[in-house]
Amino acid sequence: xxxxxxxxxxxxxxxCVQILNxxxxxxxxxxxxxxAKSCDHMPISLAFIMKPSEVIGYSRISSVQGIKNAxxxxxxxxxxxxxxxxxxxxxxxxxxxFAKSRLGIKSxxxxxxxxxxxxxxxxxxxxxxxxxxxxxxxxxxKEMLQKFARLQLDLELNGTNKTEEQENQLTAQENSHTKHNxxxxxxxxxxxxxxxxxPLPAPKPTAHSYSRAVLRLNPEKVVWMKKDI
Length: 229
Prior knowledge:
The chain is α+β, with helices and mostly antiparallel strands. It has helices at 13-21, 28-35, 87-103, 116-121, 142-158, 164-181, 212-216; strands at 2-5, 44-51, 54-63, 70-78, 107-112, 125-126, 223-228.
């Protein structure tokens, strides 16, 4: 088993698209466009190969802004029919080894919604969020990257908890919104009164309904983890 850079093995692109879209559905064109950004630096898309021409998984290594010799491992996935056989552990190890040997990475970050236990067994520990621009890092100016680096430092120093002032502002906004949207009910003693129908229940969000970009910065929805390699 091995991982290979997708941009050097374009013949594996179609299978990687299929595997990714079983869990994170996107249009084929959008997925291919994202995978086409793989390069020798970062981001790097890796195809997980069991034997020649058999792709069984995928992972991606992206840069982390403001932290030297660090990367973000994301989109780790095994083909659905092969899950539960320990292949995810192997894929993570191969991805870490690739990052260390090819890119000189010393610290690996990731985010997860519900797999904290799995990653803990691999040596990852909870940490503060990091900033990764993923595919868009090459489009950002040096000055903007420096701003992201300062923001990363603020996250490390101050954490992500809301201040009391922020909490009060949020509460005030919610109260104002509730007051604005409230409806004054007519006197129920009037014969013509017809009570309004109850509001439809809001759809329950699922893990896949959230944008990953939003989740990365929302400590209430995602667990950030780190491992030194």
